[in-house]
Design a protein that fits this description.
The protein is mainly α and about 150 residues long. It is about 75% helix and about 5% strand. It has two domains: about 110 residues, no CATH class; about 35 residues. It contains five helices and two strands, in the order ααβααβα.
Length: about 150
């Protein structure tokens, strides 16, 4: 992440600002309907639970927040009061489903020996290689089928 070009930092900053603005708007909505303290309490409970579980696993496992977890977390705290919140809910449902279907639902607390940067790079490289092989196989089958139709 530190070696990103400027435009990726700009996209990242826009996403962070959008997330912050969306959460601020959600808090405003919760304040107007009288549920703000309940949701803040639930968010605090979730954060302290993550901290407690991470401390419990200290030395054996590390916390790794996957983007599907972020989608699930935000979905938990969105309600269907207006159009914007419904769209926001759809976006984070998509993030959750894409994360699970593309990368799988990996554990949030991973053993330390499997969490090194080399292991994660190797996993990503292996996944990309397998996907490329599957695409090439599918393309070759489709091409062979097209040739048999022409013949």
């Amino acid at each position: 992440m530190k070696n990103w070009p400027w435009y990726l930092w700009a996209v990242f900053a826009c996403l962070v600002l959008f997330l912050f603005g969306s959460l601020s708007y959600l808090f405003y909505l919760y304040w107007t309907v009288g549920f703000f303290t309940i949701y803040v309490g639930l968010v605090a409970l979730a954060i302290f639970s993550f901290i407690g579980i991470t401390k419990y696993f200290a030395g054996t496992k590390e916390l790794h927040i996957h983007h599907y977890v972020l989608g699930m977390f935000v979905l938990t705290f969105t309600c269907y009061q207006n159009f914007f919140v419904t769209v926001l809910n759809g976006v984070f449902a998509g993030i959750m489903i894409e994360g699970g279907s593309r990368w799988g639902y990996d554990p949030i607390w991973e053993p330390i020996q499997q969490f090194g940067p080399w292991t994660m790079r190797q996993k990503a490289r292996t996944t990309k290689t397998l996907q490329s092989q599957a695409r090439a196989h599918h393309f070759n089958q489709a091409e062979a089928g097209a040739k048999s139709v022409v013949d």
